[in-house]
Amino acid sequence: MIERYSSDEMSSIWSEDNKVAKWLDVERAVIEILEKEEITPKGLSKQLKEVSITHNEVLEREAVTNHDLAAFVDVLQSKIQKDSNWIHYGLTSSDVVDTANALLIKESLNIVVEKIAELVNSLKNKAISESDTLIIGRTHGVYAEPTTLGSIFGNWCLEVSRGLDRLSSSLEIISYGKISGAVGNHSLISEEIENKILEQLSLKPEPLASQIVSRDRYADLFSSFAIIAGTYERIATNIRHYQRSEVGEMYEAFKQGQKGSSAMPHKKNPIGSERICGLARVVRGNTQASYETMALWHERDISNSSVERIILPDTFKLIDFMTRDLINIINDLVINHENIESNLNSAKTKLGSQKLLSLIVSKGNSRDEGYKFVQNITQNNFSIDAIIESTLSEFDDISKDEIENCFNLTTNIDSKIIEKKLKEL
Asked: Which of 98, 7, 102, 8 has the alpha carbon at shortest distance from 319?
C-alpha cells in the first residue's frame, strides 16, 4: 500500500521486520513449551529470548533458499550457539506463518475496532445534537417527506455499529493458529502440546487442520471489511450529495489555504468523501481475492500465499485510513441550517402529498381519484393557496385548516427516542 493511505501505526504492524518478529515469537513459544515437556534440551528457550532477526537478514538468505520461511529458520539457527538443530522441530512453514498471521491480524484488528468505536461515538454525538433539525427526506434522490438530521446520523451510527459487531465476531473467528505439522496430523507435536503453545500465544488451535488454518476464516474477516467499507461509502456518497451546489446542506470542512481546484478558485470539493468511495472499491476487490484463496488443492497449495501478502496488509491499512478519514469528516462537518430550512420551504408543497392524499381518502373518496388529483397539483407546482382552493372545490367535508395542516413541516420522530436508541452504543 502506498504511504498516502497508510498510518504509521498500521504500517509498523505490517512491516516486514514485524512479520519476522512474529515468526520469532511463534518459534520461541514452541521451544519454550517443548522444553517444559522435556522434549528439547534445557537452555534453548533462553537463547531464543536473546535473539533478534531483521527482514534484511532473511532476504539475504532467501536469495539462496528461494523460500522466505526456510531462510528465516536458517538465519535463526545460525544465531543459536547450542542445540540449534531443535529449532523448527515438528513444524511446517504454515505452522509459523499462519499462527504469526493470527497475531498480526489480532494486533491490527484491535486498533481498527478502537477507531471504529470512535466513529460510532462521533456519529452518535451528531445524531443527538441534530435530533430536532428538520431536513428534507429524499428517496431516489427526489424529495419525499421531512425527516430529522438526527435520524439520518443515527441511522448511519447504527449501521457502523453493526459493522463493528461483525468485526468483533471476525476477531473471534480469525484468532486461530496451528502447530500440527505438514498436513495437520500431529506427527511430531501432539495436540496437547499444540494447545499449550497456542494458549501461550492467546490463540486457539484449528480443529482438524490441513497444512494451514482454513481460509474461510480469512474470507469471513474480509467479508466484514467489505461490509464496513460499503457503509463508509454509503455515508460518504450521501455527504457528497448534501455538498452539491444545488443542495448545499452539509459540507466537508475547508481548511485555511486549501485549494479545491487548480483551475477554479471557487471550488470546495468533497475530496475526503470521494476518496473513501474510491478506496471502498479496492477493499471489495481484495475481498473477492480472499474468496478465491479458499479453494486449495487437497491439504494445501500456495496459490493463496502471494494473494495474502498483498491483501492482508493493504486492506488493514485501507480500513484504518478510511475510518480515520471519516472520523475527521464527521467531526468537522459543516451543517448549513439556513440552506436546510430554505430547501424545506421551497419543497413544502411536495412534502405534504401523502398527508393530503390520506386526508382525501379518510373522507371516503376513491384513493385512485385522490392520487391523480394530488399528483396533478404537486407535480405542476401549485402554490399552497392554489392547492387549498382546488382541494376545497374538488372534495366535500374537507376544511381549510385540515389542508393547511398537511403542509406543516413536522415529523413524528421524537428527539428523545433517537437518543434512547443510541444510548447503549
From this structure: 7
